[in-house]
Here is the input.
Amino acid sequence: MSMKIWRALLMLLLLLLAWPQVALAHVGAPYPVLLEEPVGPYIASALADPDVGKGTFYILITLPGDEPPPADTVVSVWVEPEDGHIAGMAYTAERQDTRYGERFVAEVPFDAKGPWQVRLLIEGAAGSGEALFPVKVTPAGIGWLASLACLLPFVGLGALWLRGVMRQRSTRAAP
Here is the structure.
């Protein structure tokens, strides 16, 4: 390959590294905050992805015997920061059908990182119940230091490869 192609590829790589929003689109899976806990007459499991800006809660509820909840069941997620910098707010979860059954999804706009208290309220024809649990809201994405640590092995391999190519080229050029 010519040196112009290598320079173009290097410039493309530097451009992509200068535009990190593409890489921050996916950080990790939500983590469990409730696992098959009784919440009134319901059995609830909840996964949380609490990021500053937009946090998401995935709630799965059933009745004993793995029966689905009644159609009129409403799930609300109340959030309040432990430092009290704003008052608690309620967000209604939207019911969604998935290939694994129904789930409720609530999107919560968190304005600051740190510990928050979450109150899950379930109301419906089968009764009502609530559960409390803490979450730690974190900034969206990963830090620059973690990105750098993940990038270093690839840069090292690239440097070794480039060194080998240059050494091979110099032995070919020398008579």
Notes: Residues 29-137 form a domain with the Immunoglobulin-like fold (CATH 2.60.40.2480). Residues 37 and 44 are 5 Å apart (CA to CA). Confidence is low (pLDDT under 50) at residues 22-26.
